[in-house]
Amino acid sequence: MTDKYGVVGNPIAHSLSPKIHTEFAKLTQQDLIYDKYLVELEEFEPAILKFQQQGIKGLNITAPFKERAYAICNELSIRAQYAKAVNTLKFSMNGIISGDNTDGFGLIKDVTINHRFSLTDKSILLIGAGGAARSLIKSLVDANPKQLVITNRTFDKAIKLVAEFKQKLNHASIVAKPFSELITAYDCIINATSAGLTDDQLELPRSLVHSNACCYEMVYGKQTSFLNWASQQNAKLILDGFGMLVEQAAESFFIWRGVRPSTKSLYILKNYDRTR
Ligand code: NAP
Q1: Is 134 left (phi over 0), alpha (psi -120 to 50) or beta?
Q2: pLDDT band at 273; cut points 50, 70, 90
Q3: pLDDT per residue as tens digits for the range 69-106
Q4: Does 147 score more than 60 pLDDT?
Q5: Ligand 1 touching residue 244 (CB < 6 A)
Q6: Handedness of CA 208, 212, 218, 224 (dihedral sign)
Q7: Which of 62, 109, 193 to mutate to test the pocket of ligand 1 (most atoms within 8 A of CB)?
Q8: Residue 12 phi/psi, 5° resolution?
Q9: Are the beta carbons of 5 and 57 closer than 8 angstroms?
């Protein structure tokens, strides 16, 4: 019987996940179908149980449900425990719901493997302190940077995030800084805010970018003000979140099917400019 998977969110019409997973299934000759499901805000938990009862094998979870998905899991991966959010649910035959978070993995794979930009001993600036930023911190620290600075419009949130991860990861080089104190240049600047979605300008100083820097915009599919700013600063490598989207999807596919799909053809399909 054909196994069923899908992505749950609200809104969900824009999601590229069905295209991505259908392509993965073709590439790896797996017999599965993958759909998108719009779930009303107040119906998330009962809807997930219904999907489970219907025999769906696994789900991707997107905004605004990742934290609620975390709360309903019987088992959580280490990555999900740090993120306190889940983007991948796996339903086992014995009724267990396992949760994982593949977002951090996706970004690191895109930056360090696809684009061969090492983060080891580099200074990283992470802009944002919401769910997306949180989901990256463990993976970023695992990449052994020299320093990870977290900044956020609401600075209190950055302070809290840094205090929590400093303690959990026992890492002295995670620091919170307000926008006004961003003076030195960084090797990698990641925009994990949603400012790009709303066409808001991030007020960033000119001095933030090293000549060999990588600037990463987590939003994909549009020319955001952060991407414009990065190109004005002559950053060496400027990436949007499409690569992360594809790589986090490949990791979810691996969790469900035990096979790693090649992600190369996805970039060709989407006409994305990428060198390997
Ligand atoms: P969230 O939890 O709502 O957090 C939003 C963050 O953006 C907060 O830090 C917020 O700051 C900041 N922000 C929003 N508007 C801003 C503005 N005008 N100026 C400065 N900061 C602003 O959202 P999230 O879940 O972290 O998602 C963030 C982004 O990541 C979304 O755009 C999402 O599409 C993207 N994302 C991409 C992928 C991918 O695969 N490419 C995966 C996950 C998420 P305050 O705390 O001050 O409000």
Answers
A1: alpha
A2: very low
A3: 999 999 999 999 999 999 999 999 999 999 999 999 99
A4: yes
A5: yes
A6: positive
A7: 193
A8: -140, -10
A9: yes
159 Cβ below 6 A of ligand 1: no
Closest ligand 1 atom number to CA of residue 240: 41
d(CA 129, ligand 1 centre) in Å: 8
CA of 56 to the centre of ligand 1 (A): 30
pTM of the model: 0.94
Q: Is 220 in the pocket of ligand 1 (CB under 6 A)?
A: yes
Task: Say which residues have a Cβ less than 8 Å from residue 244's Cβ, sequence separation at least 6.
Answer: 103, 106, 107, 110, 216, 218, 220
Give the ligand 1 atom nearest the CA of 196.
32
Cβ-based burial of 131 (10 A; exposed 0-12, middle 13-18, buried ≥19): buried
